Amino acid sequence: MQLQAIYNQGRIEFEEPIRLKHDNIRLIVTVPDEEIELQSSNTSKAQDMIAKYQALLNAPLPPVECLPELSSNYETRLHAIELRNQIRKDQGRPV
Description:
Blueprint: E1 5-8, E2 11-14, H1 40-58, H2 72-90
Antiparallel strand pairs: 1-2
């Protein structure tokens, strides 16, 4: 059910009085974007995190010669993944 409400200094007040069955219920509130002021500290933290992730994504891959040798356990896992993908492919399922 959608109800009209007004936000006033930290409180949400319904335009028409209603009586709820329980004292504690979860609500979803839709607020227009232009009515929200983001706190600068949270925004700057998020922007810093995005910049770090972008730097990781855009970083060049190291040359193959610089990569460590694969352990036999890791090679076994890669082989199992390849086999599983081939089985799925043979069965017509997405890989």
